[in-house]
Each structure stands twice: as C-alpha cells, then as structure tokens.
Amino acid sequence: MREVAVVPGAKAAVAALIHAARRVGVITPHWQGYVVAAKLFGKGVKFLEAKPEARWLPRFGSLGDADTLIVNYPNNPTGAVLTEPALKELLDVAEDRGITLVSDETYRDIVFEGDPLVMIDRRLEKTVSIYSFSKTFSLPGLRVGYVVGDPELIDVVAKFVAATYTSVPVFAQLAALKALEVRGEVVKFVKDEYFRRAKAFCNALSRKRFDFIEPRGAIYVFVKIRTGVDGVELARRLLREGVAVFPGAAFGERFRDYVRVSLTAPEDVLARVAKLMEEVAEP
Q: Are 177 and 250 contained in the same domain?
C-alpha cells in the first residue's frame, strides 16, 4: 500500500518529514526530539505557545510562515487532548495555508474521555498520522512504528528510511503484528490503568504548592511548582529519595518551574510520590 510505511520507531518518521520541510511549527511545551531534528537538518522552527489557562491548546493562527506543523495529541508532556473547536481551527489554518500536518499519535490509545484523534480521518492530503508500539504496548526496545497518510509523504518517509536505516528487522515486525492482534483488549486495560493512576496522583498532590491541569490522556502530569524551587532542583531532591521526574526546562525554557511526572508506577506509589513532592518542594 502506498499509504503506509513501516518505520524503525515513530521518531524516524517524524525526522523524515522534518528533513523534507522548510520551516517547522512546534507547539510548546514540546518533546525535544522535534527541535533536535530540526536543528540537525538546519530547519527553521516556529514555536506556538500553549498555556494552561487554555488547557494547553495553542492558537493555530499564529503559525507564521511554517510549511509543516507537528501536532502531538494526546500530548507529551501536558496530557492535553485536542478539542473539536481547536481541531477545526487547525484544519482551517492548514487548508488555507497549504500546511503539511505531521500528527504524532504515539499516545492515541490513551484518551480518558471521548474518541481518539486520527488526523488522517479528518484530512488526508498533505497529512500523516504516525504510530508507535512504545507506549500502548510498552515495547520501546523493538524500535518499530508505522505511518499512514498522503502517498507523497509516505514516499518521503520510505526513502528516508531506506537511505538511513535500510529496514525494520523482521523479528520486530512480527512482534508488532502480534501486538496488533491483541490491541483491543490491551487498549482498554492500558487506558483504564493510566486513568486510575492519573486520578490517584492528582488527588494526592497539594494544590498549595503545585499547579496542574489534570491530563485528559497520555501518561504524564505536567506540574508547576509554586514554592520558588525550580524543576531541576526539585528533580535533584526527588532523585536523592529514589524518585525520578523530568525537569520542565526539557520541554521549553519558559517551563523551568515545572516537572513532568510519568504515571508509570502503581497508584499507591504515585500517591506517596505526590506527598514526597510536597515535602521536598520547600524553598
């Protein structure tokens, strides 16, 4: 099929399409891999700022002269999910300006309410949806993913992979096929599990010392520290207690007073981590 390509991890497909772009739009806070690839390939970057008061959704009209926009919903690090009005605005802007949409749907299956976003269901021309086996199936070591969409963009990805990685190993593809066979039951379990974990953590986290928007999907909570301690220092303090979180500065310089908490531990552990965060966040 000309509309599908198997790739050595979703990151390879994203990199291929950044390589083919002139100027890339990135919604911030953002996964650093997008910017690292753009800088490596000498591409300009236009940041679209998302704010917590808008539930971490940007105004897509501020895209400027970017010819390619990377969207990632459910979002890493915020857990935001694209609403229908925001999606309509995005599609209108993309259509008016002829923008290529690169939809990183790594967390597609982990949506707590409503239907998951599949961008190519809403727009096929100049659009791709990119998928990974790393999150829903917890198979990051396989380095396998796939991309679906506009045949011209799929051809760009296929040529990039052929020129760099050659191909995805057969054993990884066979494991991925097996994962897809059991996808239905796995998705329900994973979605429900992360929802419970998000609730347990957010319910235990102090609103006096932290600000946060409860995630609507993905596997993270993006937490603002209100005590004056920055994210790097809080991460260091937690690490001394045997807990690892990611400093917010990794997702953009203006998020230095944030940390990203991954919901990759049981509910009781996450509740204890929330209490520990409160203790170590003292100035």
A: no
pTM above 0.90, yes or no: yes
Take residue 253 and report the two structure tokens written for it: 């310089």
Which pLDDT belongs to residue 1? 62
Same domain, 148 and 13: yes
Q: Are residues 194 and 227 in the same domain?
A: yes
Q: How many domains does the chain have?
A: 2
| CATH number, domain containing residue 176 | 3.40.640.10
Residue 261 shares a structural domain with residue 193: yes
Binning pLDDT at 50, 70 and 90, where does residue 63 land?
confident
User: ∠ CA 8-37-169 to the nearest 5 degrees?
Assistant: 10
- Give which of 230, 233, 211, 212 is closest to 221, Cα–Cα: 212
pLDDT in tens, 159-202: 999 999 998 999 999 999 999 999 999 999 999 999 999 999 99
Of 22, 36, 30, 31, nearest in space to 68 by CA: 22
Q: Which domain holds residue 175?
A: 4-181
- Whether residue 158 contacts residue 5, with contact meaning beta carbons closer than 8 Å, is answered with yes
Q: What's the first-to-final CA gap in the chain, in angstroms?
A: 58
Cβ neighbours of 70 (radius 10 Å):
28
Place of tokens 């609103």: 207
Is it the case that residue 26 has pLDDT exceeding 80?
Answer: yes
Arithmetic mean of pLDDT, 82-86: 95
203 shares a domain with 155: no
CATH of residue 202: 3.90.1150.10
3-state secondary structure at position 102: strand
